[in-house]
Amino acid sequence: MVSRFFPPAEQADEHDLVMVGGRLTSEWLLDAYRHGIFPWPMWGDWMPMTWFSLDPRAIIPLDGLYVSSRLKRTIRSGKFTVTCDRAFREVMLGCSKPRHKKDGTWITPAMIKAYCQLHAEGHAHSVEVWHEGELAGGIYGVSIGGAFAGESMFHKVRDASKVALVAMVSHLNARGYQLFDIQQWTEHTGSMGAIEISRSDYLALLKQMVDLPVTFGTELAPILP
């Protein structure tokens, strides 16, 4: 189905930019994700929104997550408690903190407001990892049919983001999702099984997934590392 708001993702320029402008509303965001496009602010909230479709695109095969023996022991130890959709905004705020002092953040106040609205409408979800009663890490993203677009994750305690990722993949498998998009490959996600595929392959996969009758549910599935 042709997008209501965006040119085809295949028409992205050499920087993977699809379009400048538009609105951060649920209608625009859901349309973007259905067509392999996502917002990535380049200049903060005071400038027009920029929308991208990356080539290559990073995914984590839902049957290909690598969990080290040490991480398995950490999960089994009971050090962390894991939940879903209990602290969505707090997870976004955690993800918005720059990793280093010189870094900025693309998770702007406008992005937080827009994705919290998606969450309130049942389209965006989070997995939270708790340690000693405090939020230690988490991951959030957007659900579109049988596809889940992981947006960002963070940790305050060692391994908390890895535990969140394992919990998310376990949950997506249990609920029947078929595609876990993470947009960009990093050494961190690569060490846990992330791979890159071409934009054309990603869009072909996405097209098969967006109308599947899959829902995120309300209770986190057991972690199966």
From TrEMBL:
Domain of life: Bacteria
Keyword tRNA processing annotated: no
Record-listed E.C. numbers: 2.3.2.6
Reaction catalyzed: N-terminal L-lysyl-[protein] + L-leucyl-tRNA(Leu) = N-terminal L-leucyl-L-lysyl-[protein] + tRNA(Leu) + H(+); L-phenylalanyl-tRNA(Phe) + an N-terminal L-alpha-aminoacyl-[protein] = an N-terminal L-phenylalanyl-L-alpha-aminoacyl-[protein] + tRNA(Phe); N-terminal L-arginyl-[protein] + L-leucyl-tRNA(Leu) = N-terminal L-leucyl-L-arginyl-[protein] + tRNA(Leu) + H(+)
Pfam families recorded: Leu_Phe_trans
Keyword tags: Acyltransferase, Cytoplasm, Transferase
Alphabetical GO biological process terms: protein catabolic process
GO cellular component, one term: cytoplasm
SUPFAM superfamilies registered for this protein in UniProt: Acyl-CoA N-acyltransferases (Nat)
Protein's cellular compartments: Cytoplasm
GO terms assigned for molecular function: leucyl-tRNA--protein transferase activity
Function as written in the Swiss-Prot or TrEMBL entry: Functions in the N-end rule pathway of protein degradation where it conjugates Leu, Phe and, less efficiently, Met from aminoacyl-tRNAs to the N-termini of proteins containing an N-terminal arginine or lysine.
Family: Belongs to the L/F-transferase family.
Name recorded for this polypeptide: Leucyl/phenylalanyl-tRNA--protein transferase
Organism: Blastopirellula marina
Biological classification of the source: Bacteria, Pseudomonadati, Planctomycetota, Planctomycetia, Pirellulales
Gene: aat
